[in-house]
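Private note to self, pasted from the team thread so I don't lose it. Backbone tokens:
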């Protein structure tokens, strides 16, 4: 029967495709959902949601399935899988693109490249736009253009009641704010984004490398320079352990000329040692992201990847007492392990000052991604301990963690991911999803009890704000 829940494509446990479709990217977290629903448009998403609610079944939203902690599926839940909502339509002036939440990030890059346009996306082929954008979305153009969450003009969402809403900053400022940066899995199912595009037909790719014995001097020079460098630069810092390249790199993609770049890198060389290797080439965003991905990791979906991440944000440069732990983590780590840092500043800070979106870490000095992936389950303990141990050594300096690179094994306090926005997010949650239809570990609750506040060690100021917003239940 067309137009009813009965016409939806559902894959249940007895279907041959169920095992393939229930899986997310990280094989460590594989749920056994009740069924996977594959809607083909926003109206079907609404039907799927209302149908799950009518049957009293929990719901999980999935776009690309890359949640490191497997948040996009749960045992006995209905997984609303948006893989078929993958349309990419670019307007005739190439100023905006309508992109389905299930579109894979590299497919978007390729479509935009045909028009000489970019978005500030990250390093992956198969990450889904839905999770990437709603959690913030950081990449090698972040200081120039902001996070992906800062590049959304409007979006379509199916809310907790199944109603379809077009959300703009003027029409629904709270929902717009909440969904962009803190939205993944929390407020509704976003089905389509209208993205702002930026012209960048080519750019200059650079990689500077030092042997590992220069690590302290290079980290220190980078952290004193990168967060206040020219905002067109987002120079990452990559530490490749003894098991791979055994070196430290500074690299990035610059939307200007080679001559300008040379001038902008000069202050880094004044602060630290001269690099042993320099690579500078003119390339495209798409080609640069593919090349970088090859160096970083396998993001293919059908592999047996097991992974762990941790993602502290820091408010200031790291002091030398932390360098010992980084040096130790560099020697013979298990799995494919590395540490990668991204500087703050530029448009990330400007967007935080505007406050139109809820990405909570725009004023951070830098982000550190600690990551390991492997395929043999017998390596789980060694790899998760490696990441956990390094995280614990640096976390006393951290001011938050990144919702898109979570680690519930070691850190699950929501205020870390949502920052000072947490009380307003709780109030917004209460307004749009009072029954907690959209729920997961690390999710935003519709209210907080005093006991929960104590268990989560919420600061007094946050407890007071929750009370003044009427969301602290005694
Ligand atoms: C190989 C790899 C490379 C990565 N590279 C980067 C990078 O360069 N920069 C960066 O910032 N991050 C990066 N990430 C992290 C990535 O951004 C997050 O894992 C992101 O949440 C994945 O989105 P997804 O749609 O693929 O995942 P999913 O597992 O489908 O979803 C992730 C979360 O978002 C929610 N969600 C998904 N779709 C929607 C929607 N349409 N509406 C509302 N909520 C939704 C889910 O419920 C879940 O909680 C990378 C991850 C991997 C595995």
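Design output:
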């Amino acid at each position: 029967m067309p137009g009813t829940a009965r016409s939806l494509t559902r894959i249940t446990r007895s279907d041959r495709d169920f095992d393939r479709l229930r899986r997310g990217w990280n094989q460590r977290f594989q749920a056994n959902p009740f069924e996977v629903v594959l809607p083909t448009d926003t109206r079907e998403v609404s039907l799927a949601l209302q149908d799950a609610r009518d049957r009293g079944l929990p719901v999980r939203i999935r776009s690309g399935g890359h949640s490191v902690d497997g948040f996009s599926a749960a045992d006995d839940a209905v997984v609303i899988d948006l893989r078929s909502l993958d349309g990419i339509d670019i307007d005739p002036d190439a100023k905006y693109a309508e992109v389905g939440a299930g579109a894979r990030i590299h497919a978007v890059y390729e479509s935009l490249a045909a028009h000489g346009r970019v978005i500030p996306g990250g390093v992956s082929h198969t990450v889904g736009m839905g999770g990437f954008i709603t959690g913030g979305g950081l990449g090698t153009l972040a200081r120039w253009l902001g996070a992906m969450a800062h590049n959304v003009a409007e979006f379509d969402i199916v809310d907790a009641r199944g109603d379809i809403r077009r959300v703009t900053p003027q029409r629904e400022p709270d929902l717009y704010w909440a969904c962009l940066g803190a939205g993944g899995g929390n407020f509704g199912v976003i089905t389509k984004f209208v993205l702002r595009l930026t012209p960048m037909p080519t750019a200059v790719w650079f990689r500077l490398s030092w042997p590992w014995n220069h690590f302290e001097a290079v980290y220190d020079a980078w952290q004193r320079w990168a967060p206040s460098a020219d905002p067109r630069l987002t120079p990452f810092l990559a530490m490749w352990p003894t098991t791979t390249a055994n070196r430290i790199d500074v690299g990035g993609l610059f939307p200007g000329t080679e001559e300008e770049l040379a001038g902008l890198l000069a202050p880094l060389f004044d602060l630290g040692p001269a690099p042993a290797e320099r690579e500078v080439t003119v390339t495209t965003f798409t080609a640069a992201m593919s090349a970088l991905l090859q160096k970083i990791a396998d993001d293919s979906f059908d592999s047996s990847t097991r992974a762990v991440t941790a993602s502290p944000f820091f408010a200031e440069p790291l002091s030398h007492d932390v360098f010992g732990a980084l040096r130790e983590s560099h020697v013979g780590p298990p799995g494919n392990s590395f540490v990668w840092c991204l500087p703050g500043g530029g448009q990330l800070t400007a967007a935080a000052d505007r406050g139109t979106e809820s990405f909570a870490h725009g004023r951070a000095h830098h982000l550190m991604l600690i990551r390991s992936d492997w395929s043999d389950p017998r390596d789980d303990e060694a790899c998760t301990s490696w990441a956990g141990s390094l995280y614990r050594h640096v976390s006393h300096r951290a001011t938050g963690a990144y919702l898109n690179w979570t680690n519930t094994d070691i850190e699950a306090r929501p205020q870390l991911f949502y920052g000072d926005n947490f009380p307003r997010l709780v109030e917004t949650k209460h307004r749009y999803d009072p029954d907690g239809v959209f729920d997961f570990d690390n999710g935003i609750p519709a209210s907080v009890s005093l006991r929960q506040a104590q268990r989560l060690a919420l600061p007094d100021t946050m407890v007071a704000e929750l009370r003044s917003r009427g969301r602290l239940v005694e």
